[in-house]
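Dear colleague,

As promised, here are the two records you asked about, laid out in our usual form so they can be pasted straight into your sheet.

NAME FIELD: protein one
SEQUENCE, THEN STRUCTURE:
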Amino acid sequence: MTRVVVNHLRLSAPLTQTLINAAGEACRQILAPGAHSASVVQVDDSHAILVLSFPDKETEERVSADIGGPWMREHLLPLLAGPPQRSSGVVVAGAS
C-alpha cells in the first residue's frame, strides 16, 4: 500500500533560492532508497509543503531516519517559525 507524508513548513523568513536548491537535492536523495516521489510546493513566501510518497511504512521510516530527519535538522529546522505539521497515512483512493 502506498503511503504519503505531508509536512507543512512555515518559515520565519521568505523561502530563498538556496533553500529551494537544497530541497531539490534532498528530494533526489530521497528517491534513491525507494521513495516513489518527493516534491516541495511553495504556497506563499514563507509556507512550503513537502509531499513524499513511499511503497510501504518500512521505507518511509528508513528514509525519514537516514535522509529526511538529518537533512531537516541541518537545513530546515533553524529556519522554521514553529514545528512542522506532519501527517502520514495510507493512500485509499486516487488516480494518476
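NAME FIELD: protein two
SEQUENCE, THEN STRUCTURE:
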Amino acid sequence: MFIKNQSFKDEETLLEQLFDFSLGKPSTAVQHMISEIDKEVSANEAFQKYRATLTDEEDILELDAEERNIRLGEQLMEIYSSFLVSDNKLFGVKDDEQIFLYELDLY
C-alpha cells in the first residue's frame, strides 16, 4: 500500500500500514512490543510446529512477519483510539495526543 497522509481507526488499515512501516524504524515502545511478541511466538508450540512444516525460506519469513504484525496490530488497537500517518511517520492517537510509533525514510 502506498503510504500517504491519513487518519484511520480500523484494524485492517493498521495492518496494511504496519506491513509498510515494518521496513522503517520503530519507536522504542514498538521495539519492546515486537520483542515480547517474538518471545511469545517462539514459545507457542502449535505455531512452531506449523512453521516447521514450511520448507521455503520466503514462506517462513512471510509467516513470521504476518504473525508479528497481527499481534502487534491487536495490541496497538487496545492502546490507541485511532492512528495517523503524517510525513512518513505512523502515530497512535490516545486522548488527542499523538504518540510516535514508526518512521519510514523514503529518500
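A couple of things worth noting about protein two: The longest helix spans residues 57-79. Helices lie at 11-21, 28-43, 45-53, 57-79.

Best,
R.
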